[in-house]
Amino acid sequence: MAKEKPSIPQGTRDFLPYQVQQRQYIFQTIKKVFENYGFLPIETPAVEKLNTLIGKYGEEGDRLIFKVLNSGNFLKGVDEQLLKEKDYNKLGYQICEKVLRYDLTVPLARFVVMHQNEIVLPFKRYQIQPVWRGDSPQKGRYREFWQCDADIVGSDSLVYEVEFIQMYYEALKNLGFQRFTIHINHRQVLQAVVDLLHISDKFSDFCIVIDKLDKIQWKGVTEELQQKGFHEEVIQKIQKIFQLQEGFKETINFLKEEFCNLPSGLKALEELEWIYEVVCSTNPAIETYLIFDLALARGLNYYTGSILEVKLQDMKVGSIGGGGRYDNLTALFGKEGLSGAGISFGIDRIYDAMNELQLFQNLDLKIPMIFIAYFDNKHLKKVFELANFLRKRNIRTEISPKNDKLGKQIQLADKKQIPYVLIVGEEEIQKEVYSLKHLVTGNQKNLDLFEIAEFIKNGGY
To answer: What fold, for 17-46+102-356?
Structure first.
């Protein structure tokens, strides 16, 4: 029987060493921005209890949560009728007590409640870990992917919304992106729209559909609204309200007139106006990147205030970041009255986009700088002494695995893209002067060990 070729699950990926280094560069760049703004790191388990996550992301989100089968005989005690009916949804709740982490925000709320006596409020944390979603794999969308989150819990100050916008701008600029937009809206603005049209009972359906406007355009939105029972007259009014306005302030002023009898809608507009003015006055360069996107809804149910999303222009990879305010999320776990807000970076989409835009071209990959070749195993003690000397000076060094012919050892170094070969033989050891060969130019120098270390640290040739 032929052996099956090895493979990995759909929506997951392996990463080669250079790819891991590229991804680590992204992590480090974003992490530096997080820490500059006073955020501290935490970690939570990959597996959470089912009742911790289920019901926190809406019906659509719940369907995408990966459930983990109970250990041992997971069918023990299961309702026989459910087995006969093959009701996989209800059955899942009986045979699975654990789930894979869907995002980093709900686990944060659980974390804050569990550790409330060990943290200081307002609590600013960042978290860089993988999450899992049972989505349909496609370009820019994976079933296993990493998130980089920054959240503040325990304050309703709009200062943090301003900082989140600044953090997005700084991180993406530091990564080399030039063409991107930071979209902002407010859940209470969307609530005011449905209140204005007397369809408050359809708020959830409205948000889910209108959030797809940039993907399926008005034709698709109209069809989906019709399918969900929205009347034609209401759909026409929605389209009129959502016609694009010329600029941030113009959109605010247009909506102020529409919401003149809706205090909560006007308050939300005032918040957005304040955020916009502070951002633009403290860093005018951000103004051209910031867009009031009335169709931005963010499908997750826990958002209650301002919402953010970051998109790349000229690239169809979906959003590369998003977040918002989620007042009282910790109430889900018994802790009332804690306001929170946060943002997330979609690392995998950012990574794909940076590859496509060739933003890794000048990245210094951490491959070894020196490959030590030797002629005889009796020289190994000296070889290790040399390697340790160089490594203590932070010069990445690799030792040849065996004393092949010099040509073969040099060939191996070349395949590994190691730029320098340090040649160690009897004569070199006695004179304590070693040949250092640059494999790209073919140039060769005879230097003592201190000179080699200094030469490499000064950039070599």
So the answer is: BirA Bifunctional Protein; domain 2 (3.30.930)
